[in-house]
Write a structure and sequence with these properties.
Two copies of one chain form a homodimer.
Chain A lengths: L8 H13 L3 E5 L16 H13 L5 E4 L1 H5 L2 H18 L4 E8 L3 H14 L4 E4 L5 H8 L5 E7 L5 H5 L8 H9 L8 E5 L7 H7 L5 E3 L9 H8 L6 E5 L1 H4 L7 H23 L1
Parallel strand pairs in A: 1-2, 1-8, 2-3, 3-4, 4-5, 5-6, 6-7, 7-8
Helix pairs in contact in A: 2-4, 2-12, 5-6, 9-10
């Protein structure tokens, strides 16, 4: 979804894709060389080759792809090259797809501006995930890009997620303060929020604060979150959810038919999503 | 400081350097191609050439170097190559120096493990900065590296720093909860904490919670923090402080004598530090 000409074009295109594909699936491209099929290891660029085959096999079932930068940085220069090739491949061949750099960045203002440049300009992602701990000026340089989306961590899916996010502040839990405060920053309509599927009980409370924003929801599958539970309180009139699955799809098979196995898993989730969308629309 | 053979060797080596150099200066290598001397832009790798000359000119006055990854990622593959060459250059030529990847990473457990691999194994830094928002399992994969240091954001120097860090939780401000909780995680002696120099008033309170841990202190210089104020409550018997200066040193000059100008600025800070150490020891 590069070359978006108008502000928020990418959100409108995303909603259109959801309607057409009857899917709100995001596939996490978290490529670990110890887990991919052995026959790919002899390729010149095993990470890109793996991603390319996964994307080719699943692009009609998913609306978004989300490489997590950690898995690329762990392989140094070759990893960054594979990340660049992957986003270029999507932007060239499937420009309708919504692309998310799952980078969880955040730093003082002038430094966050460099991260925004890295992901929005150099790599040309549609969206990037950002951590809120450093506050307003650490997030606003991302929000300054009007045709891009900033996905702020709110309530994460991991075991330690509530260590701090669940702390009660003067008024309410920290994650609620994060949600409310973020709405006061510049261009708040460019925000999405990360809310883990493992915290499905919280979605009703979260929808009171952000009734319409899209939520990026990791944690379905390997981490134990349930799609039906999330949708019960998470859905909006525009769908408003991107459900991410990484390991459950990309490592469904580990032989030469891995892409087909991934497609089968993506299809199962898409079918479940189609049923939910039909029931709710 | 690569090839550390023993747990915490790097902390002992750091303290030895502070004693020998009478300095606790960390130099931030935040290289912006629009700010470096023009004559370097014709080099094959301007970023690395700039870093090399800064390091060669200042290594006797500083104990640590801290490239912020944002400035390298903004230049894509070339940026990552320059980052790799910079850390390799330090580890080969000045192995006594303490090296910090200012990356502010943090993700779910298996993903944080990949970041730890990237910075501790692939790039071979001594330390990495980590954001606390995602809690225990987002930080512990870094702490699992026993001969490496994990520098957790506590109270940052930027304008938005108190947006969330200053929120009162049930018991106390969030940054204090972060400090206290982190001490309960594995290998807490491998921790340092980021505390901004612009928040000098908070150092007495912070020292009640972490009396002996090293603090990495950005915000002296361009951001307005004051060295004397920080030292008043921040110093410990082992010094316990790393004062970072980035722009104030590396952009002191912008012609062919830029490295000498950087050395002069580093020397001024080192002299001030020597006086403080002599007065307090």
């Amino acid at each position: 979804m590069h070359n978006s000409l108008f502000e928020l074009m990418n959100k409108q295109e995303l909603i259109l894709q959801i309607q057409q594909k009857k899917s709100f699936l995001c596939i996490g491209l978290d490529v670990d060389l110890t887990k991919i099929p052995k026959h790919l290891l002899t390729c010149e660029d095993p990470i890109f080759e793996f991603n390319k085959q996964i994307i080719d096999a699943t692009h009609q079932l998913a609306v978004a792809y989300k490489p997590n930068t950690a898995f690329y940085e762990a392989y140094g220069i070759k990893g960054w090259q594979a990340l660049g090739k992957t986003i270029d491949y999507i932007n060239k061949n499937y420009p309708e797809l919504f692309t998310i750099a799952d980078a969880k960045r955040g730093d003082i203002g002038n430094t966050s501006a460099m991260y925004a440049k890295a992901f929005f300009e150099d790599l040309n992602f549609d969206a990037v995930t950002v951590a809120p701990y450093m506050g307003s000026d650490s997030v606003e340089p991302f929000l300054a890009f009007k045709n891009k989306t900033t996905i702020l961590l709110a309530l994460t899916s991991n075991k330690g997620g509530l260590d701090f996010q669940g702390l009660k502040t003067d008024n309410q839990e920290l994650y609620k303060e994060v949600l409310k405060t973020a709405l006061t920053w510049q261009n708040p309509k460019n925000l999405m929020f990360v809310v883990g599927a493992t915290k499905a009980d919280y979605f009703a409370e979260i929808r009171k604060i952000v009734p319409n924003h899209f939520l990026l929801v990791p944690g379905v599958g390997a981490q134990g979150g349930n799609l039906q539970d999330v949708c019960k309180f998470g859905l909006t009139k525009d769908c408003g959810l991107l459900i991410n699955s990484s390991r459950g799809i990309i490592y469904a098979g580990n032989d030469e038919n891995f892409a087909k196995a991934a497609k089968n898993e993506a299809f199962k989730l898409q079918q479940e999503m189609e049923q939910i969308l039909n029931e709710n629309n």
